[in-house]
User: Fold this.
Amino acid sequence: MKKTLILLMFLHIMQITCAKAFSQDEFLKQNPVLEKLLYYGTLAPSSHNAQMWKVRILSDNEFLIILDKERNLNYVDPDSRESLISIGAFLANIIRGSEILGLNLQYNIYNETAPDNSVVYVSFSGIETESFSDSVQKFENLLLKRKTSKEKFSKKKIPVQEINKIIAGYEDSVIYFPKDSSSYQYIRENTMKAYETQGQNQDKRNELSEWFRFSDKETEAKKDGFSAEMLGMGSLKKFFYYNFYNREKVRNIKFLNEELKLIKTQTDTADGFLLVIAKDNSVKENIRAGIILENIWLNAADADIKIQPLSQILEEEPYKNNISNDLNINGEVKMILRTGYSANNKIVKKVRRNIKDILDNTEILNTKEEKQ
Ligand SMILES: Cc1cc2nc3c(=O)[nH]c(=O)nc-3n(C[C@H](O)[C@H](O)[C@H](O)COP(=O)(O)O)c2cc1C
Assistant:
């Protein structure tokens, strides 16, 4: 009896000491479903395409989403509101993806950022089934189709039923202001003013300039920020842009008038503005706003309705302090989305970091072996 006990203890110690530690990346390679979910997350929108997300894998079916403060836009987004909204969009793709894959996913959004900057805990169970493959393909195509549309929109009106379809389930948190409303005019005028205020701030110009990419090589190396294609350029414009434009020029305030002309065209041709509303500025509410943002954006993409967020009102004083009151909105405005149709249905190549680049460097024990 005693001998058996000693032998069992010995085996247990051996099991613990021999459990192999994996890097997050090595571990992920053995877990394709987890890898797929994270890939969906990375296709989410983020302000300046800064991708302020990191992931720490805890086991084959659990991970943390972490706010990457090094990627925060400290001048336009000092309290990380937009970073958290971007993380919410990242989470939305994972939630929607898990439903398509037939997984049972649970998540807990923290009330506050944890000391290690984690903000969401995610766990899931179930395995991918082959029979879902058609809808998986459709979903993956939709993630790649959703994009920020910077071009002029057409005069075609969005039918009310289409707007209702896009915001279905989120009626309490989303408002639509069509072109003939006074709130539409308010947003149009104040976006111009807020843009001008922001454009005169050298620190904010410098910060923005860091996210512009001036060659395919730079885009490929950094895998974030704005490529020429994302700015809406065709091959001729791209040629001139890559050859005659540079970071110094983006920083130069003398280009502000040109920029104001562009934003005027963008706001003048919007068919309406969709606003995402939340209760307050907590981590939870910002992440929830991001979930709503991405869901209505994907619905819009599916209906060929174009979206461009216009954030200047929400970034600049006094505009950000006044908007809820001025528009009689109960709550905080989290996103303002220019909405309309255009003939530009080009799929723009997604510029995103690889999954291994967003993984944290904590090692994990091979929990699969331990569970056996
Ligand atoms: C919180 C947030 C704020 C944004 N603000 C703006 C904005 O003011 N103007 C704009 O053109 N795009 C804005 N965007 C869109 C991002 O620039 C865009 O998502 C990112 O460059 C990735 O491109 P994609 O959406 O085409 O995938 C915003 C996105 C998010 C999530």
